[in-house]
Write a structure and sequence with these properties.
Mean pLDDT: 91
CATH class of the largest domain: Alpha Beta
Number of strands: 32
Structural class: alpha/beta
Helix content: 25-40%
Distance between the termini: 35 Å
CATH architecture of the largest domain: 3-Layer(aba) Sandwich
Protein backbone atom coordinates (compact mmCIF):
# COMPACT_ATOMS: atom_id res chain seq x y z
CA UNK A 1 0.00 0.00 0.00
CA UNK A 2 2.55 2.54 1.11
CA UNK A 3 4.80 2.12 -1.89
CA UNK A 4 2.25 4.02 -3.99
CA UNK A 5 2.92 7.24 -2.12
CA UNK A 6 3.87 10.16 -4.29
CA UNK A 7 5.60 12.27 -1.70
CA UNK A 8 5.28 15.92 -2.66
CA UNK A 9 6.77 17.36 0.50
CA UNK A 10 10.15 15.77 -0.16
CA UNK A 11 10.24 17.52 -3.52
CA UNK A 12 9.27 20.86 -1.99
CA UNK A 13 11.65 20.63 0.97
CA UNK A 14 14.98 22.01 -0.19
CA UNK A 15 16.15 23.77 2.97
CA UNK A 16 19.49 22.57 4.15
CA UNK A 17 21.68 23.55 7.08
CA UNK A 18 25.30 22.44 6.78
CA UNK A 19 26.78 22.24 10.25
CA UNK A 20 30.46 21.25 9.96
CA UNK A 21 31.70 23.52 12.76
CA UNK A 22 30.44 21.22 15.50
CA UNK A 23 32.49 18.26 14.27
CA UNK A 24 35.69 19.63 15.75
CA UNK A 25 34.73 18.96 19.35
CA UNK A 26 31.99 16.37 18.87
CA UNK A 27 32.31 12.82 20.17
CA UNK A 28 31.43 11.57 16.69
CA UNK A 29 33.66 13.44 14.26
CA UNK A 30 33.00 11.30 11.19
CA UNK A 31 29.55 9.73 10.97
CA UNK A 32 30.24 7.71 7.84
CA UNK A 33 33.51 6.27 9.12
CA UNK A 34 31.84 5.24 12.38
CA UNK A 35 28.88 3.72 10.54
CA UNK A 36 31.20 1.77 8.23
CA UNK A 37 33.09 0.42 11.25
CA UNK A 38 29.80 -0.77 12.73
CA UNK A 39 28.73 -2.50 9.50
CA UNK A 40 32.12 -4.19 9.16
CA UNK A 41 31.92 -5.80 12.62
CA UNK A 42 28.76 -5.10 14.70
CA UNK A 43 29.92 -7.21 17.65
CA UNK A 44 33.26 -5.39 17.88
CA UNK A 45 31.44 -2.05 17.60
CA UNK A 46 29.06 -2.75 20.47
CA UNK A 47 31.68 -4.54 22.53
CA UNK A 48 33.94 -1.49 22.42
CA UNK A 49 31.12 0.75 23.66
CA UNK A 50 30.21 -1.70 26.43
CA UNK A 51 33.81 -1.63 27.66
CA UNK A 52 33.34 2.03 28.62
CA UNK A 53 31.00 0.83 31.39
CA UNK A 54 31.61 -1.22 34.54
CA UNK A 55 30.68 -4.91 34.66
CA UNK A 56 31.02 -7.42 37.51
CA UNK A 57 31.99 -10.01 34.91
CA UNK A 58 32.20 -9.62 31.13
CA UNK A 59 30.39 -11.40 28.34
CA UNK A 60 31.11 -14.64 26.53
CA UNK A 61 29.67 -13.21 23.31
CA UNK A 62 28.34 -9.79 22.44
CA UNK A 63 25.19 -11.03 20.74
CA UNK A 64 23.25 -14.17 19.90
CA UNK A 65 20.51 -13.88 17.27
CA UNK A 66 17.88 -16.59 16.88
CA UNK A 67 15.27 -14.76 14.82
CA UNK A 68 13.23 -13.06 16.21
CA UNK A 69 14.94 -13.33 19.61
CA UNK A 70 18.21 -11.68 20.57
CA UNK A 71 20.43 -12.02 23.62
CA UNK A 72 23.07 -9.40 24.29
CA UNK A 73 26.29 -9.60 26.32
CA UNK A 74 25.76 -13.26 27.07
CA UNK A 75 26.42 -14.30 30.69
CA UNK A 76 27.74 -10.86 31.63
CA UNK A 77 26.91 -9.65 35.15
CA UNK A 78 26.17 -6.05 36.09
CA UNK A 79 23.94 -3.65 37.94
CA UNK A 80 22.84 -0.57 36.02
CA UNK A 81 22.79 1.56 39.18
CA UNK A 82 26.47 0.84 39.74
CA UNK A 83 27.11 2.63 36.46
CA UNK A 84 24.61 5.42 37.21
CA UNK A 85 25.79 6.05 40.78
CA UNK A 86 28.73 4.17 42.28
CA UNK A 87 31.27 4.86 39.59
CA UNK A 88 30.53 8.60 39.79
CA UNK A 89 30.03 8.89 43.57
CA UNK A 90 33.41 7.29 44.17
CA UNK A 91 35.48 9.38 41.77
CA UNK A 92 35.84 12.98 40.58
CA UNK A 93 32.07 13.40 40.06
CA UNK A 94 31.35 12.79 43.75
CA UNK A 95 30.34 16.43 44.35
CA UNK A 96 28.99 17.12 40.87
CA UNK A 97 25.26 17.89 40.64
CA UNK A 98 23.52 14.76 39.38
CA UNK A 99 19.94 15.98 39.70
CA UNK A 100 18.40 19.46 39.92
CA UNK A 101 14.67 19.77 40.56
CA UNK A 102 12.41 22.81 40.52
CA UNK A 103 8.88 22.81 41.92
CA UNK A 104 5.94 25.06 41.13
CA UNK A 105 6.30 27.04 44.34
CA UNK A 106 9.89 27.99 43.60
CA UNK A 107 11.31 25.16 45.69
CA UNK A 108 14.60 23.74 44.44
CA UNK A 109 16.43 20.58 45.39
CA UNK A 110 19.89 19.59 44.20
CA UNK A 111 21.45 16.15 44.62
CA UNK A 112 25.15 15.58 44.04
CA UNK A 113 26.11 12.12 42.84
CA UNK A 114 27.12 11.26 46.38
CA UNK A 115 23.82 12.50 47.82
CA UNK A 116 21.76 10.75 45.15
CA UNK A 117 23.70 7.55 45.80
CA UNK A 118 22.84 7.67 49.51
CA UNK A 119 19.18 8.50 48.86
CA UNK A 120 18.87 5.52 46.52
CA UNK A 121 20.62 3.19 48.98
CA UNK A 122 18.22 4.15 51.77
CA UNK A 123 15.20 3.68 49.54
CA UNK A 124 16.54 0.32 48.35
CA UNK A 125 16.99 -0.86 51.93
CA UNK A 126 13.52 0.42 52.80
CA UNK A 127 12.00 -1.61 49.98
CA UNK A 128 13.94 -4.67 51.08
CA UNK A 129 12.52 -4.26 54.58
CA UNK A 130 9.05 -4.41 53.03
CA UNK A 131 9.93 -7.80 51.56
CA UNK A 132 10.77 -6.69 48.01
CA UNK A 133 13.28 -9.02 46.42
CA UNK A 134 14.84 -9.72 43.05
CA UNK A 135 12.19 -10.29 40.39
CA UNK A 136 9.32 -8.69 42.33
CA UNK A 137 7.41 -5.94 40.55
CA UNK A 138 7.04 -2.47 42.06
CA UNK A 139 4.51 -0.10 40.50
CA UNK A 140 5.53 3.57 40.68
CA UNK A 141 2.72 6.13 40.36
CA UNK A 142 4.25 9.48 41.23
CA UNK A 143 4.66 13.07 40.04
CA UNK A 144 7.88 14.32 38.47
CA UNK A 145 9.86 14.79 41.68
CA UNK A 146 13.27 13.42 42.73
CA UNK A 147 11.70 10.56 44.70
CA UNK A 148 10.19 9.15 41.52
CA UNK A 149 13.66 8.66 40.04
CA UNK A 150 15.09 7.52 43.38
CA UNK A 151 12.50 4.74 43.65
CA UNK A 152 13.21 3.60 40.08
CA UNK A 153 16.93 3.38 40.84
CA UNK A 154 16.25 1.68 44.18
CA UNK A 155 14.26 -1.03 42.41
CA UNK A 156 17.06 -1.58 39.92
CA UNK A 157 19.58 -1.67 42.79
CA UNK A 158 17.91 -4.70 44.42
CA UNK A 159 16.86 -6.41 41.20
CA UNK A 160 13.16 -5.57 41.48
CA UNK A 161 11.30 -4.90 38.24
CA UNK A 162 9.77 -1.44 38.13
CA UNK A 163 6.63 -0.54 36.24
CA UNK A 164 6.22 3.23 36.12
CA UNK A 165 2.69 4.48 35.46
CA UNK A 166 2.29 8.10 34.42
CA UNK A 167 0.85 10.14 37.31
CA UNK A 168 -1.87 11.56 35.06
CA UNK A 169 -3.52 8.20 34.42
CA UNK A 170 -6.87 7.42 36.04
CA UNK A 171 -8.15 4.51 38.10
CA UNK A 172 -8.86 2.06 35.27
CA UNK A 173 -5.53 2.58 33.50
CA UNK A 174 -3.61 2.19 36.77
CA UNK A 175 -5.56 -0.91 37.80
CA UNK A 176 -4.95 -2.56 34.42
CA UNK A 177 -1.21 -2.02 34.67
CA UNK A 178 -0.95 -3.13 38.31
CA UNK A 179 -2.82 -6.35 37.60
CA UNK A 180 -1.02 -7.21 34.39
CA UNK A 181 2.40 -6.78 36.03
CA UNK A 182 1.23 -8.40 39.30
CA UNK A 183 2.82 -5.59 41.30
CA UNK A 184 3.69 -6.43 44.90
CA UNK A 185 4.21 -2.84 46.07
CA UNK A 186 2.80 0.46 44.83
CA UNK A 187 4.78 3.65 45.53
CA UNK A 188 2.85 6.91 45.18
CA UNK A 189 2.49 10.43 46.57
CA UNK A 190 -0.52 12.09 48.10
CA UNK A 191 -0.60 14.82 45.44
CA UNK A 192 1.01 16.14 42.27
CA UNK A 193 1.21 19.86 41.54
CA UNK A 194 -0.04 21.10 38.17
CA UNK A 195 -0.69 24.71 37.18
CA UNK A 196 -0.95 25.79 40.80
CA UNK A 197 -3.42 23.07 41.75
CA UNK A 198 -3.06 19.94 43.85
CA UNK A 199 -3.90 16.81 41.86
CA UNK A 200 -4.80 13.84 44.09
CA UNK A 201 -2.86 10.63 43.47
CA UNK A 202 -3.38 8.62 46.66
CA UNK A 203 -7.15 8.51 46.19
CA UNK A 204 -6.66 7.20 42.64
CA UNK A 205 -4.45 4.41 44.00
CA UNK A 206 -7.03 3.54 46.66
CA UNK A 207 -9.71 3.05 44.01
CA UNK A 208 -7.33 1.20 41.67
CA UNK A 209 -6.52 -1.34 44.39
CA UNK A 210 -10.12 -2.48 44.91
CA UNK A 211 -9.51 -5.35 42.48
CA UNK A 212 -5.71 -5.71 42.67
CA UNK A 213 -5.00 -8.73 44.91
CA UNK A 214 -1.25 -8.87 44.18
CA UNK A 215 -0.52 -5.61 46.06
CA UNK A 216 0.69 -6.09 49.62
CA UNK A 217 1.74 -2.57 50.62
CA UNK A 218 1.41 1.01 49.39
CA UNK A 219 4.20 3.50 50.11
CA UNK A 220 2.99 7.11 50.23
CA UNK A 221 5.19 10.18 49.97
CA UNK A 222 3.21 12.83 51.86
CA UNK A 223 3.82 16.31 50.45
CA UNK A 224 0.86 18.28 51.78
CA UNK A 225 0.44 19.84 55.22
CA UNK A 226 -1.29 18.69 57.37
CA UNK A 227 -0.20 15.16 56.54
CA UNK A 228 -2.90 13.01 54.97
CA UNK A 229 -4.09 10.05 57.04
CA UNK A 230 -2.77 6.64 56.02
CA UNK A 231 -4.82 3.45 55.64
CA UNK A 232 -3.95 0.02 57.06
CA UNK A 233 -1.80 -1.19 54.15
CA UNK A 234 -0.14 2.20 53.60
CA UNK A 235 3.33 3.19 54.79
CA UNK A 236 4.84 6.67 54.92
CA UNK A 237 7.80 7.06 52.52
CA UNK A 238 9.90 8.95 55.09
CA UNK A 239 9.16 6.27 57.67
CA UNK A 240 10.27 3.58 55.20
CA UNK A 241 13.70 5.16 54.72
CA UNK A 242 14.21 6.20 58.36
CA UNK A 243 16.92 4.36 60.34
CA UNK A 244 18.06 2.23 57.41
CA UNK A 245 21.71 1.86 56.37
CA UNK A 246 23.02 4.26 53.68
CA UNK A 247 24.76 1.34 51.95
CA UNK A 248 23.06 -1.36 49.88
CA UNK A 249 25.22 -3.74 47.82
CA UNK A 250 24.04 -3.93 44.20
CA UNK A 251 22.18 -7.07 43.25
CA UNK A 252 24.22 -9.00 40.69
CA UNK A 253 22.09 -9.09 37.55
CA UNK A 254 22.52 -11.09 34.40
CA UNK A 255 22.60 -8.97 31.25
CA UNK A 256 19.31 -10.56 30.15
CA UNK A 257 17.48 -10.16 33.48
CA UNK A 258 14.43 -7.90 33.28
CA UNK A 259 15.10 -4.29 34.30
CA UNK A 260 11.59 -2.89 33.84
CA UNK A 261 8.20 -3.29 32.21
CA UNK A 262 6.73 -0.19 30.59
CA UNK A 263 3.22 -0.14 29.24
CA UNK A 264 2.80 1.69 25.97
CA UNK A 265 0.41 4.61 26.05
CA UNK A 266 -0.88 3.48 22.66
CA UNK A 267 -3.72 5.14 20.78
CA UNK A 268 -5.51 1.85 20.12
CA UNK A 269 -6.02 -1.44 21.88
CA UNK A 270 -5.00 -2.59 25.35
CA UNK A 271 -1.62 -1.42 26.67
CA UNK A 272 1.39 -3.62 25.93
CA UNK A 273 3.90 -4.37 28.67
CA UNK A 274 7.21 -3.81 26.86
CA UNK A 275 10.02 -5.71 28.58
CA UNK A 276 13.55 -4.27 28.67
CA UNK A 277 16.56 -6.02 30.12
CA UNK A 278 19.62 -4.86 32.04
CA UNK A 279 22.72 -5.14 29.87
CA UNK A 280 21.74 -4.17 26.35
CA UNK A 281 19.46 -1.38 27.50
CA UNK A 282 22.24 0.09 29.64
CA UNK A 283 24.70 0.06 26.74
CA UNK A 284 22.22 1.46 24.21
CA UNK A 285 21.00 4.35 26.36
CA UNK A 286 24.50 5.27 27.56
CA UNK A 287 25.88 5.26 24.00
CA UNK A 288 23.08 7.35 22.51
CA UNK A 289 22.94 9.88 25.36
CA UNK A 290 26.66 10.52 25.13
CA UNK A 291 26.91 10.65 21.35
CA UNK A 292 23.56 11.93 20.04
CA UNK A 293 23.54 14.84 22.52
CA UNK A 294 27.33 15.15 22.36
CA UNK A 295 27.21 15.33 26.15
CA UNK A 296 30.11 17.14 27.83
CA UNK A 297 31.17 17.30 31.47
CA UNK A 298 29.80 20.80 32.11
CA UNK A 299 26.46 20.37 30.34
CA UNK A 300 23.18 20.95 32.16
CA UNK A 301 20.77 18.64 30.41
CA UNK A 302 16.97 18.95 30.37
CA UNK A 303 14.63 16.40 28.86
CA UNK A 304 11.07 17.66 29.34
CA UNK A 305 9.45 14.21 29.24
CA UNK A 306 7.98 12.37 32.22
CA UNK A 307 9.46 9.10 33.53
CA UNK A 308 6.03 7.59 32.90
CA UNK A 309 7.15 7.29 29.27
CA UNK A 310 10.17 5.59 27.72
CA UNK A 311 11.80 8.96 27.00
CA UNK A 312 11.91 9.59 30.74
CA UNK A 313 13.38 6.15 31.43
CA UNK A 314 16.07 6.34 28.77
CA UNK A 315 16.87 10.06 28.57
CA UNK A 316 16.08 11.48 32.00
CA UNK A 317 17.33 8.64 34.14
CA UNK A 318 19.42 5.76 32.90
CA UNK A 319 21.27 7.15 29.87
CA UNK A 320 22.22 10.55 31.32
CA UNK A 321 23.25 9.21 34.75
CA UNK A 322 25.30 6.41 33.20
CA UNK A 323 27.05 9.16 31.21
CA UNK A 324 27.65 11.24 34.36
CA UNK A 325 25.39 14.15 33.35
CA UNK A 326 23.77 16.90 35.39
CA UNK A 327 20.05 16.30 34.85
CA UNK A 328 17.42 19.00 35.32
CA UNK A 329 13.75 18.13 35.96
CA UNK A 330 10.73 20.21 36.91
CA UNK A 331 7.07 19.91 37.81
CA UNK A 332 6.37 23.18 35.98
CA UNK A 333 4.27 22.98 32.83
CA UNK A 334 5.34 25.03 29.77
CA UNK A 335 2.54 27.58 30.09
CA UNK A 336 2.37 28.13 33.87
CA UNK A 337 2.51 30.63 35.44
CA UNK A 338 2.88 32.10 31.94
CA UNK A 339 4.16 31.00 28.49
CA UNK A 340 7.67 32.07 29.46
CA UNK A 341 7.94 29.40 32.16
CA UNK A 342 10.36 27.07 30.36
CA UNK A 343 12.46 29.82 28.82
CA UNK A 344 12.97 31.35 32.27
CA UNK A 345 14.13 27.95 33.56
CA UNK A 346 16.64 27.68 30.71
CA UNK A 347 18.00 31.11 31.58
CA UNK A 348 18.02 30.50 35.36
CA UNK A 349 19.60 27.05 35.25
CA UNK A 350 21.95 27.60 32.32
CA UNK A 351 20.50 24.67 30.36
CA UNK A 352 22.84 23.64 27.55
CA UNK A 353 21.05 20.60 26.08
CA UNK A 354 17.27 20.82 25.67
CA UNK A 355 15.16 17.82 24.53
CA UNK A 356 11.41 18.29 24.03
CA UNK A 357 8.44 17.28 21.87
CA UNK A 358 7.15 18.80 18.61
CA UNK A 359 3.74 19.26 20.23
CA UNK A 360 5.35 21.62 22.77
CA UNK A 361 7.28 23.44 20.04
CA UNK A 362 4.09 24.01 18.03
CA UNK A 363 2.32 25.24 21.15
CA UNK A 364 5.06 27.82 21.63
CA UNK A 365 4.83 28.78 17.96
CA UNK A 366 1.15 29.53 18.50
CA UNK A 367 2.03 31.86 21.39
CA UNK A 368 4.50 33.80 19.26
CA UNK A 369 8.15 34.83 19.51
CA UNK A 370 7.71 37.48 22.18
CA UNK A 371 7.86 35.07 25.12
CA UNK A 372 11.19 33.37 24.36
CA UNK A 373 12.67 36.75 23.39
CA UNK A 374 12.15 37.94 26.97
CA UNK A 375 14.87 35.54 28.15
CA UNK A 376 18.53 34.89 27.50
CA UNK A 377 18.75 31.47 25.86
CA UNK A 378 22.44 31.83 25.06
CA UNK A 379 23.44 28.87 27.22
CA UNK A 380 21.79 26.45 24.79
CA UNK A 381 24.10 24.55 22.47
CA UNK A 382 22.09 21.44 21.46
CA UNK A 383 18.36 21.17 20.77
CA UNK A 384 16.50 17.86 20.52
CA UNK A 385 13.06 16.68 19.44
CA UNK A 386 11.23 13.46 20.30
CA UNK A 387 7.79 11.86 20.18
CA UNK A 388 6.50 12.48 16.66
CA UNK A 389 7.75 13.97 13.38
CA UNK A 390 9.11 17.51 13.64
CA UNK A 391 7.51 19.22 10.66
CA UNK A 392 9.66 21.66 8.66
CA UNK A 393 8.02 24.85 9.94
CA UNK A 394 8.39 23.75 13.56
CA UNK A 395 12.04 22.90 12.82
CA UNK A 396 12.59 26.41 11.43
CA UNK A 397 10.98 28.08 14.44
CA UNK A 398 12.90 25.91 16.91
CA UNK A 399 16.19 26.48 15.09
CA UNK A 400 15.92 30.24 14.63
CA UNK A 401 13.81 31.44 17.59
CA UNK A 402 15.02 29.12 20.37
CA UNK A 403 18.45 28.17 19.07
CA UNK A 404 19.29 31.53 17.53
CA UNK A 405 20.42 29.81 14.35
CA UNK A 406 23.49 28.38 16.10
CA UNK A 407 22.29 25.17 17.84
CA UNK A 408 22.16 21.84 16.00
CA UNK A 409 18.80 20.07 16.20
CA UNK A 410 18.76 16.32 16.76
CA UNK A 411 15.29 15.22 15.65
CA UNK A 412 15.19 11.68 17.01
CA UNK A 413 13.06 8.77 15.87
CA UNK A 414 12.67 5.79 18.19
CA UNK A 415 10.00 3.94 20.18
CA UNK A 416 9.14 2.44 23.56
CA UNK A 417 10.01 -0.87 21.94
CA UNK A 418 13.43 0.21 20.63
CA UNK A 419 14.49 1.55 24.05
CA UNK A 420 17.01 3.92 22.48
CA UNK A 421 17.25 6.48 19.69
CA UNK A 422 17.57 4.90 16.25
CA UNK A 423 17.46 7.62 13.57
CA UNK A 424 18.62 11.23 13.76
CA UNK A 425 21.02 13.73 12.25
CA UNK A 426 24.25 13.38 14.21
CA UNK A 427 25.90 16.54 15.53
CA UNK A 428 27.97 18.12 12.77
CA UNK A 429 26.05 16.50 9.90
CA UNK A 430 23.95 18.68 7.55
CA UNK A 431 20.39 19.15 8.81
CA UNK A 432 17.30 18.97 6.59
CA UNK A 433 14.04 20.32 8.05
CA UNK A 434 11.37 17.61 8.08
CA UNK A 435 13.91 14.77 7.92
CA UNK A 436 14.83 12.97 11.13
CA UNK A 437 18.12 11.96 9.50
CA UNK A 438 19.99 8.71 8.96
CA UNK A 439 20.24 5.52 11.03
CA UNK A 440 22.78 6.08 13.78
CA UNK A 441 25.93 3.92 13.85
CA UNK A 442 24.70 0.69 15.41
CA UNK A 443 21.35 0.63 13.62
CA UNK A 444 20.41 -0.85 10.23
CA UNK A 445 17.20 0.86 9.10
CA UNK A 446 15.52 1.07 5.71
CA UNK A 447 12.32 2.09 3.97
CA UNK A 448 10.84 -0.82 2.04
CA UNK A 449 7.78 -1.98 0.10
CA UNK A 450 5.52 -4.69 1.47
CA UNK A 451 7.51 -7.07 -0.74
CA UNK A 452 10.70 -6.22 1.13
CA UNK A 453 12.37 -4.10 -1.54
CA UNK A 454 14.07 -0.80 -0.71
CA UNK A 455 12.08 2.10 -2.11
CA UNK A 456 13.75 4.52 -4.52
CA UNK A 457 14.41 8.10 -3.38
CA UNK A 458 11.26 10.16 -2.99
CA UNK A 459 8.91 7.20 -2.67
CA UNK A 460 7.21 6.18 0.56
CA UNK A 461 7.25 2.82 2.25
CA UNK A 462 7.42 1.01 5.56
CA UNK A 463 10.13 1.97 8.04
CA UNK A 464 11.91 -1.17 9.24
CA UNK A 465 14.95 -2.22 11.27
CA UNK A 466 16.90 -5.03 9.64
CA UNK A 467 19.26 -6.14 12.42
CA UNK A 468 18.95 -6.48 16.22
CA UNK A 469 20.22 -3.72 18.52
CA UNK A 470 21.15 -3.86 22.24
CA UNK A 471 18.26 -1.87 23.78
CA UNK A 472 15.54 -3.70 21.83
CA UNK A 473 12.52 -5.07 23.70
CA UNK A 474 12.82 -8.75 24.51
CA UNK A 475 9.10 -9.55 24.60
CA UNK A 476 5.67 -8.19 25.47
CA UNK A 477 4.95 -9.22 29.04
CA UNK A 478 2.77 -12.35 29.14
CA UNK A 479 2.02 -11.96 25.45
CA UNK A 480 4.95 -13.09 23.33
CA UNK A 481 2.70 -13.38 20.30
CA UNK A 482 2.42 -9.58 20.22
CA UNK A 483 6.21 -9.38 20.29
CA UNK A 484 6.50 -11.78 17.38
CA UNK A 485 4.18 -9.61 15.29
CA UNK A 486 6.83 -6.89 15.22
CA UNK A 487 9.13 -9.27 13.37
CA UNK A 488 6.66 -11.34 11.33
CA UNK A 489 4.40 -8.64 9.84
CA UNK A 490 7.05 -8.30 7.12
CA UNK A 491 9.62 -11.05 6.56
CA UNK A 492 12.93 -10.88 8.46
CA UNK A 493 12.64 -7.26 9.62
CA UNK A 494 11.35 -5.36 12.64
CA UNK A 495 8.22 -3.52 11.49
CA UNK A 496 8.18 -0.15 13.22
CA UNK A 497 4.61 0.62 12.19
CA UNK A 498 5.60 3.96 10.62
CA UNK A 499 5.61 5.12 7.04
CA UNK A 500 8.65 6.98 5.81
CA UNK A 501 10.45 8.22 2.74
CA UNK A 502 14.17 8.41 1.92
CA UNK A 503 15.95 10.99 -0.17
CA UNK A 504 18.92 10.41 -2.44
CA UNK A 505 21.40 10.95 0.44
CA UNK A 506 19.71 8.42 2.71
CA UNK A 507 17.95 10.94 4.96
CA UNK A 508 14.65 9.58 6.29
CA UNK A 509 11.44 11.60 6.69
CA UNK A 510 8.85 9.99 8.99
CA UNK A 511 5.37 10.35 7.47
CA UNK A 512 3.35 8.95 10.37
CA UNK A 513 1.87 5.66 11.48
CA UNK A 514 1.18 3.08 8.78
CA UNK A 515 -2.45 3.02 9.85
CA UNK A 516 -2.68 6.82 9.51
CA UNK A 517 -3.65 6.54 5.85
CA UNK A 518 -6.61 8.10 4.10
CA UNK A 519 -7.60 6.54 0.77
CA UNK A 520 -9.15 9.24 -1.40
CA UNK A 521 -10.37 8.12 -4.82
CA UNK A 522 -7.87 5.26 -4.74
CA UNK A 523 -4.94 7.44 -3.70
CA UNK A 524 -3.16 6.81 -0.38
CA UNK A 525 -2.76 10.08 1.50
CA UNK A 526 -0.64 10.21 4.65
CA UNK A 527 -2.17 12.22 7.49
CA UNK A 528 1.25 13.57 8.52
CA UNK A 529 1.89 14.90 5.03
CA UNK A 530 -1.34 16.90 4.92
CA UNK A 531 -0.82 18.08 8.49
CA UNK A 532 2.69 19.30 7.68
CA UNK A 533 1.37 21.18 4.67
CA UNK A 534 -1.26 22.91 6.82
CA UNK A 535 1.23 23.79 9.57
CA UNK A 536 3.55 25.35 7.00
CA UNK A 537 0.93 28.10 6.55
CA UNK A 538 1.68 31.19 8.65
CA UNK A 539 -1.74 31.07 10.38
CA UNK A 540 -1.59 27.45 11.60
CA UNK A 541 -0.04 26.32 14.86
CA UNK A 542 -1.16 22.70 14.74
CA UNK A 543 -3.38 20.44 12.66
CA UNK A 544 -4.84 16.95 12.55
CA UNK A 545 -6.64 15.31 9.65
CA UNK A 546 -8.97 12.33 9.37
CA UNK A 547 -10.80 10.53 6.61
CA UNK A 548 -14.60 10.76 6.40
CA UNK A 549 -16.58 8.24 4.34
CA UNK A 550 -17.76 9.61 1.00
CA UNK A 551 -20.03 7.76 -1.46
CA UNK A 552 -18.08 8.94 -4.49
CA UNK A 553 -14.43 9.15 -3.42
CA UNK A 554 -14.40 6.54 -0.69
CA UNK A 555 -13.16 9.15 1.76
CA UNK A 556 -12.75 12.88 1.96
CA UNK A 557 -10.20 14.65 4.14
CA UNK A 558 -11.33 16.69 7.12
CA UNK A 559 -8.84 18.89 8.95
CA UNK A 560 -8.95 20.19 12.51
CA UNK A 561 -6.81 23.31 12.83
CA UNK A 562 -5.47 25.33 15.77
CA UNK A 563 -4.60 28.90 14.78
CA UNK A 564 -1.66 30.96 15.92
CA UNK A 565 -2.29 34.07 17.98
CA UNK A 566 -3.43 36.99 15.82
CA UNK A 567 -5.31 34.98 13.18
CA UNK A 568 -9.09 34.69 12.94
CA UNK A 569 -11.13 31.75 11.72
CA UNK A 570 -13.44 32.26 8.77
CA UNK A 571 -14.38 31.13 5.28
CA UNK A 572 -11.64 33.28 3.74
CA UNK A 573 -8.99 31.46 5.78
CA UNK A 574 -10.54 28.08 4.92
CA UNK A 575 -10.11 28.90 1.23
CA UNK A 576 -6.55 30.11 1.80
CA UNK A 577 -5.60 26.89 3.58
CA UNK A 578 -7.18 24.70 0.92
CA UNK A 579 -5.30 26.59 -1.79
CA UNK A 580 -2.08 26.31 0.24
CA UNK A 581 -2.40 22.52 0.51
CA UNK A 582 -3.27 22.28 -3.18
CA UNK A 583 -0.11 24.16 -4.12
CA UNK A 584 2.04 21.96 -1.87
CA UNK A 585 0.53 18.50 -2.34
CA UNK A 586 -1.85 18.66 -5.28
CA UNK A 587 -5.66 18.62 -5.50
CA UNK A 588 -6.12 15.05 -4.23
CA UNK A 589 -4.79 16.01 -0.77
CA UNK A 590 -6.90 19.15 -0.26
CA UNK A 591 -9.13 18.92 2.85
CA UNK A 592 -12.78 19.12 1.85
CA UNK A 593 -13.65 20.36 5.34
CA UNK A 594 -11.67 22.46 7.79
CA UNK A 595 -12.80 23.00 11.39
CA UNK A 596 -11.02 25.47 13.65
CA UNK A 597 -10.52 24.18 17.20
CA UNK A 598 -8.83 25.31 20.42
CA UNK A 599 -7.17 21.96 21.17
CA UNK A 600 -6.68 18.45 19.82
CA UNK A 601 -7.09 15.14 21.65
CA UNK A 602 -3.66 13.76 22.49
CA UNK A 603 -2.08 11.04 24.54
CA UNK A 604 -0.14 12.35 27.49
CA UNK A 605 3.05 11.75 25.52
CA UNK A 606 1.80 14.28 22.95
CA UNK A 607 0.61 12.03 20.11
CA UNK A 608 -2.57 13.15 18.39
CA UNK A 609 -5.40 10.63 18.82
CA UNK A 610 -6.99 10.86 15.38
CA UNK A 611 -9.31 7.96 16.12
CA UNK A 612 -10.95 10.07 18.84
CA UNK A 613 -11.52 12.88 16.35
CA UNK A 614 -12.91 10.40 13.84
CA UNK A 615 -15.17 8.69 16.37
CA UNK A 616 -16.62 12.02 17.49
CA UNK A 617 -17.08 13.15 13.88
CA UNK A 618 -18.92 9.95 12.94
CA UNK A 619 -20.85 9.59 16.20
CA UNK A 620 -18.99 6.41 17.18
CA UNK A 621 -17.60 5.05 20.44
CA UNK A 622 -14.00 6.33 20.78
CA UNK A 623 -12.98 3.21 22.73
CA UNK A 624 -10.32 3.30 25.44
CA UNK A 625 -9.38 6.92 26.13
CA UNK A 626 -7.48 6.29 29.38
CA UNK A 627 -4.34 7.67 27.73
CA UNK A 628 -6.01 10.94 26.74
CA UNK A 629 -4.52 14.06 28.31
CA UNK A 630 -6.81 16.34 30.26
Amino acid sequence: MAERFDVKLIEKEKRYYPDPSYKENAWVKDYQKMYDEFIADPSAFWGKIAEELDWFSTWDRVMEWNYPYARWFLNAKLNITYNCLDRHAKNHRRNKAALIWRGENGEQRIYTYQQLYKAVMRCANGLKNLGVKKGDCVCIYMPLIPEQLIVMLACARIGAVHSVVFGGFGVSALNTRINDAQAKIVVTADIAMRRGKSIPLKSVVEDALINAPSVEKVVVLRRREPLVELQDMEIDYQEMIRDVPPECPPEVMDAEDTLFILYTSGSTGTPKGVVHTCGGYMVGTYYTTKNIFDLKENDVYWCTADPGWITGHSYILYGPLAAGATVFITELTPDFPDPGSWWKLIEDEGITVFYTAPTAIRMFMKMGESWPKKYNLGSLRILGSVGEPLNPEAFEWYYHVIGGGRCPIVDTWWQTETGMQMITTMIGEPMKPGFAGKPIPGVVADVITKDGKSVPPGKGGFLVIKEPWPAMLRTVYKNDERYRKYWYTLDNVYMAGDLAVKDAEGYIMILGRADDIIIVAGHNIGTAEVESALVSHKAVAEAAVIGKPDPVRGNIIKAFVILRVGFRAGEKLVSELQYHVRMMLGPIAVPSEIEFVDKLPKTRSGKIMRRVLKAKELGMDPGDISTLEE
